[in-house]
């Protein structure tokens, strides 16, 4: 079917010589365009996801074009990124704060059970990233739609499938958006609370105590968070991500030095449980899932690349970057738990001797690096939420104002959430169980199956079996992790109020913030 592109971005079919047959796409779109509000942000064009009765009679490609407005977005002012910039942003997107809780996750799982399951989670995570990227590229090529983000890939995959799946396209796309925003806001909250708590720890230990409360430190941090949140494009973000990544890698090296400095003999290995308690193992999955959550940003990184074909492949940016990340994370988790055992804190930074100037410098460097990482994590929720508040009638100045307003609202919302969440370890596990497991392990195999319908032979059955196994892993992590996390949250709410303390090398300082042990990350 020959189709042409109109100046307003709608796809039309030239009239045929016959007046009989179903209405042309151009005629259908002309009657429905007025009722469909098209929203554009950068390379993302989103319309309302409902098809009219006339559009249900169209062919599958026409339905996709109708629901997606045959997206050919206006010129994007955001500069494209190089392979190196993409690698830095990819590496830094995973090098957040969740990995500092991985030694604590190994305490939940047990030394050898955690060591055995950790590589499986890494392989499944990277595989699902490839599944989503393959689906996005294929759907874009098949329906000539341009670049697709996560929620659009899900929408188009459902619209191009069975009639039952087509009816679910709108609700599924909304679900993906909801989980993306929830997950990224959870990450941002973790970043915010990490900066606040470590700034509090650093100042209180250095000055021997002040009259500023923990909530006061939370309010102080709003200003620098607002400043960095206005860094908008990925190319600029890649520069500060490079500084942040180098700072964090040096800090991780120092942490590993502290973890391996004690004499770790064979008796140390045997003294730690090989497998953790069954009611705590789900917390291991929740924290680990959360530490490897970056799937919402990865597909946006590809869409902003000068050479997107270099992201995938056996020796592509994705595999190289994720391999390095997995090695760093496993070393920190294994040796961190091996060094501190049952005393492993919710964040490995709490196990550092604050009497040491080097340890205090690590805290300061990590806090600075996480602060610089904040705009990268805020990129996804802004990207998802902005299309809901702008219209085609908005000028560039109006769009810029609304984007700034959303960023300010998000930062203050994150501050409000962090003021009421005392224990980041349980919070990380809860968000990881709810959002990360679905986005990373449930949705990508499902989208891939809908995009590439498996053949009805033994190979096709193996593909379906693999997808079911991965999705089962995600569902189990979702269900058990959510239940365990909620149980612990209820215990916090109804239990006796406790107060955290800081070890400042010879003296302790009350945190003035209610928490469970470990008190502060």
UniProtKB/TrEMBL annotation:
InterPro entries: AA_transpt_TM (IPR013057). It comes from the Eukaryota. Pfam families: Aa_trans. GO terms for cellular component: vacuolar membrane. Residues 84-485 form the Amino acid transporter transmembrane domain. It is found in: Membrane. One of its GO terms (molecular function) is L-amino acid transmembrane transporter activity. The keyword Disulfide bond does not apply. Keywords: Membrane, Transmembrane, Transmembrane helix. This is Proton-coupled amino acid transporter 1 isoform X1. It comes from Hyalella azteca.
């Amino acid at each position: 079917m020959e189709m042409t592109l109109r100046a307003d971005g709608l796809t039309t079919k030239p009239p045929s010589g016959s007046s009989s047959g179903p209405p042309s796409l151009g005629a259908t779109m002309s009657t429905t365009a007025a009722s469909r509000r098209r929203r554009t942000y950068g390379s993302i064009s989103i319309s309302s996801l409902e098809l009219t009765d006339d559009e249900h009679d169209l062919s599958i490609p026409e339905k996709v074009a109708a629901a997606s407005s045959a997206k050919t977005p206006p010129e994007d002012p955001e500069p494209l990124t190089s392979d190196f910039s993409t690698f830095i942003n990819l590496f830094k997107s995973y090098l957040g704060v969740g990995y500092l809780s991985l030694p604590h996750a190994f305490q939940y799982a047990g030394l050898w059970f955690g060591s055995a399951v950790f590589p499986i989670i890494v392989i499944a995570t990277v595989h699902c990233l490839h599944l989503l990227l393959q689906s996005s590229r294929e759907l874009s090529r098949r329906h000539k739609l341009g670049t697709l983000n996560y929620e659009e890939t899900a929408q188009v995959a459902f619209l191009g499938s069975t009639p039952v799946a087509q009816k679910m396209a709108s609700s599924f796309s909304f679900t993906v958006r909801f989980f993306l925003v929830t997950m990224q806001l959870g990450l941002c909250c973790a970043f915010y609370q990490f900066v606040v708590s470590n700034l509090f720890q650093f100042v209180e230990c250095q000055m021997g105590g002040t009259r500023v409360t923990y909530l006061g430190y939370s309010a102080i941090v709003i200003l620098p968070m607002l400043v960095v949140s206005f860094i908008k494009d990925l190319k600029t973000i890649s520069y500060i991500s490079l500084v942040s990544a180098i700072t964090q890698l040096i800090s991780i090296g120092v942490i590993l030095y502290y973890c391996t400095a004690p004499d770790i003999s064979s008796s140390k290995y045997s003294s730690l449980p090989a497998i953790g308690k069954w009611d705590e193992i789900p917390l291991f999955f929740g924290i680990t899932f959360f530490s490897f959550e970056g799937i919402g940003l990865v597909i946006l990184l590809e869409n902003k690349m000068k050479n997107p074909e270099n992201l995938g492949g056996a020796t592509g940016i994705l595999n190289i970057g994720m391999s390095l990340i997995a090695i760093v994370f496993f070393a920190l988790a294994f040796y961190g738990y091996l060094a501190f055992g049952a005393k492993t804190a919710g964040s490995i930074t709490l196990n550092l001797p604050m009497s040491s100037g080097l340890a205090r410098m690590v805290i300061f460097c990590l806090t600075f690096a996480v602060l610089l990482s904040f705009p990268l994590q805020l990129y996804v929720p802004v990207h998802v939420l902005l299309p809901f508040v702008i219209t085609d009638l908005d000028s560039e100045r109006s769009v810029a104002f609304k984007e700034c307003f959303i960023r300010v609202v998000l930062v203050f919302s994150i501050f409000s959430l962090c003021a009421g969440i005392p224990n980041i370890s349980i919070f990380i596990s809860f968000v990881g169980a709810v959002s990360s497991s679905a986005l990373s392990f449930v949705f990508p195999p499902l989208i891939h199956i809908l995009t590439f319908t498996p053949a009805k032979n033994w190979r096709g059955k193996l593909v379906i079996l693999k997808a079911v196994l991965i999705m089962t892993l995600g569902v189990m992590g979702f269900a058990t992790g959510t239940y365990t996390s909620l149980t612990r949250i209820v215990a916090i709410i109804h239990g006796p109020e406790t107060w955290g303390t800081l070890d400042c090398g010879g003296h302790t300082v009350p945190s003035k913030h209610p928490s469970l042990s470990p008190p502060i990350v």
